[in-house]
């Protein structure tokens, strides 16, 4: 954000003293004369500025003490003591950005863009490279810009540099991106092109490696949740399955990993898509829109789901090779109108060059309103590089301090998938919500249908299909449980530390807003509730202070699960649906399973007797 801080309009001290000295004339005359003199002074200064070809200097926002962005005016020939201090400072910024930092060279701490000469810039980048090597990192020049607010002097430049840690002990930065969009919009094909490194042939060849079931290959439609990985090394280069790499080699070579969660576009698989959004905790969402069909089918619904769950979203308009430029522009205009509507209140940002991609990546995480829009083709490869630049620079939403706080808590692992693997036994997949999980650790899993927790031992751990010794909060992985009986497990369970006293409930209260309902929402209504990895049908027991709800109304509602108790957290985001009924909210109160159930039964019996 550029801020204009011109000094025009200020009255000089000399003028003020002169005005005060002529106070014998009336107030009105004095005011008029001061106004005339002020105008004359402004004109003189404006003429002087025009004569000297000067414009007010541009600014960045002042440097923040926390975060991974550092301003440096110049780094020319520092002393050994100064160099050690600079290296320590770089280490801190890398830690704040979980392995990534951005250096703005030629910028003062207050944000003033001063710029450097060619020689000073070369010397500064050389020093920054030495600093990076000392802390085990690499640098990538993102962009250079000329600062030309004073044309009398030589051209000065500022440089934006990405510093990224070289991977060590598999501690790469991992970002999860949920892929949304209508059926046949090109989601799986785009992921195939990004992760396999080969363009599509126009008939869906690139997506074949992503499908998990035969009917998906036959219809070309995703019905399940699949995961694909795209890596970037410390120099910002793409690391994917091209050159016959395995998943293990990609993890070893990457400093940053993008895990794409490929979700279903068809409306009949909506519950799978919602489960992917609520359970896998994506950092970002990528909405894919076909250029030739525009906003169709489930596009609006998927956009609404991401916004309801407060997942930052960026948009990719695909298949631009199939239609004219006018059709692409019409689709983009459609999207811009949709994003600007009162319900969305987003600011669309068209990405048409590498400079736009860098700006979009930085502003995207700093402002909730910014929504970058890319137009590309998976067949011709048009603008595909811009999306890679954006994903390479995209910073994490949480800083190291927040992750450290989560790691200090007791272990809690969400069970999202359950498998039986030959020679390994039972395997569960999911996300570690808090704490740290190690091989051989003893945990308890539950709740069962009776509300109990069962003891188990973690065997081996795998992240992105490669072995891992330690799992940290926020990371997704699969855990081998050996001979543990698979029939005792189900999706929605949690594996927690035995020291934890997990809060399970059959009933809970939530503050909700009803997004849409065909008729009215009242006591006795049944809906499918999604809370994190929990997905179960629940009955509306009561609406506090109201008899019924209509579209757009808010209330505190008590829900009762109809099958078995679940583990929930206070404040957890909630999404419920049934047919066209949809609502969102958050959990406000958990009710103990047995006593409340008995109390409700007694209340119902009393009502029937009366």
Automatic annotation (TrEMBL):
Presence of keyword Nucleotide-binding: yes
Bilayer-spanning residue ranges: none
One GO MF term attached to the UniProt entry: GTP binding
Ranges of compositional bias, category Basic residues: 28-51
Protein's name according to its UniProt entry: Tr-type G domain-containing protein
InterPro entries: EF-Tu_GTPase, EFTu-like_2, GTPBP1-like, P-loop_NTPase, T_Tr_GTP-bd_dom, Transl_B-barrel_sf, Transl_elong_EF1A/Init_IF2_C
Gene3D superfamilies reported in the protein's UniProt record: P-loop containing nucleotide triphosphate hydrolases (3.40.50.300), Translation factors (2.40.30.10)
Tr-type G domain residues: 172-400
